[in-house]
Amino acid sequence: MSPLVSVTPTTRSELSTVTAKLGLREKMDLAPVITTVQSVLDDIRSRGDSAVLAYTERFDKVRLAPAQLRVTEAEVEQALASIDPDLLATLREAATNITRFHKAQLPQDVHLATAHGGFTGLVHRPLDCVGVYVPGGSAPLPSSVLMNVLPAKAAGVGKIIMCTPPRPNGTVHPAILAAASIAGVDEIYRVGGAQAIAALAYGTATIPAVDKICGPGNIYVNTAKRLVFGHCDIDMFAGPSEILILADKTAQPAYVAADMLSQAEHDPLASSMLLTTDPELALAVAAEIDRRVPLLPRRAILEKSLQQYGAILVVPDLGTAIDFANELAPEHLELCIQDDDIEQTIAQIRHAGAIFVGHYSPEPLGDYFAGPNHVLPTSGTARFFSPLNTADFIKKTSLIRYTRQDLAAVWEKVAQFADSEELAAHADALRVRFDADLARQQAEDQSPRQAAGKE
């Protein structure tokens, strides 16, 4: 049940083989899924609420009327009253941490003066409306509510719409509703799956269309997000979760094993890996995993994940581990190493969704409470994607204001540039302001038309 364990120092080429194996998680045939999802999107775009209700009955086994799609204020208040007060206080504290972190990311407008009183600049404006999808599944995910809604709130988004699948009795889990209330969601709809993504993207008589959709989901939800991208924006292309731990002899086997298991329990496709310079630690972590897995409720998922995509590998030195981390570009990277090596190691890490530093910064701390976002790039996309952040909910608009003196100094250069692209009208837009012959000719061309207009 434990992951692959190798106490023989692993070579660079062997590490590359591991990377290739992890890449196989993304190679499944999506053609049947795309066909199914596209039909749902087209149907909802055509029939609106009627199709949403039909798919809710088909997939979630819940029959609703249009008026029942939206969760009422009374339901939200009831959920708040039913939540354990200690959990409610923790949700509020986590929300405070997340809000504080994301407000600190607010960008500043840019204003650059020109030579003669004009300026160029960049202004930032929040999106008008954002849709957040929160899965139902086997467990509620209030953390997903906080992590997707609060950055949008920090950015100043005008309206936030949330969709989440109903439970078999037609209700939404109280923890999800409580988190939505704390985060400040404006409207909540009991709709799940690809049908929810379609409704958010295209709008229906009941559910407003949004400018951006964010939030996790299954393969149908993620495929729907890919297919509506361009009609509206989305957060990112999410894949299976992953954690890579770099550890030396100072690491505690029980801590490392627990952190690996915290990711492996997500999904059979999740990947949990340990690279260590200490063979004794490798064996101790493997033994601890073997001891703990039978005691955990998601044992079947853990076993599949660890057997298929787990690994405990000994490397000759920390440098090799760092090189591999940069190649893998993991979603979560833990550094369970001695303090003397931490700052230098952080400086060498180029690609990771989030870095958890030291023996007391476990990955679940980031999932729930610390403040940085837990929506992170997966499957190596940390090479070019960033965590969900406040800027994801803000548009940038350029400003250009030249005075006559500013333009007089450069218009001939700009006109020449336009001429080089054989765009005469572009060049004329400069010349008409300063070229006396062209201005006179255009005035003469205009005179007959003006005279005709008066007759």
Please indicate the count of domains.
3
The CATH superfamily title of the largest domain: Nitrogenase molybdenum iron protein domain
- At CATH level 3, the topology of the largest domain is Rossmann fold
* Uncertain ranges: none
Separation, N- and C-terminal Cα atoms: 93 Å
Assigned CATH architecture of the largest domain: 3-Layer(aba) Sandwich
CATH class of the largest domain: Alpha Beta
The structural class is: alpha/beta
Number of strands: 14
Task: Give the overall form.
Answer: globular
Helix tally?
19
**Major sheet description:** 6 strands, parallel
Question: Helix content range of the residues, please?
Answer: 40-55%
Key terms:
455 residues; alpha/beta; Rossmann fold; 3 domains; five-stranded parallel sheet; 19 helices; 15% strand
In short:
By secondary structure, this protein is α/β, with parallel strands linked by helices. The protein is built from 19 helices and 14 strands.
In words, what does this structure look like?
It is a single chain. This protein is an alpha/beta fold and 455 residues long. It has three domains: 4-29 and 239-387, Rossmann fold, CATH 3.40.50; 48-235, Rossmann fold (3-Layer(aba) Sandwich); 410-454, no CATH class. It has helices at 12-23, 31-47, 49-60, 73-82, 85-103, 142-155, 174-183, 193-202, 219-228, 253-264, 279-292, 299-309, 318-328, 339-348, 363-368, 404-408, 411-420, 424-434, 436-454; strands at 4-6, 110-113, 119-126, 129-133, 159-163, 187-189, 212-214, 233-234, 242-247, 271-276, 311-314, 332-336, 354-357, 394-401. It has a six-stranded parallel beta sheet with strand order 1-11-10-9-12-13, with helices on both faces. α2 (31-47) crosses α9 (219-228) and α8 (193-202) packs parallel to α9.
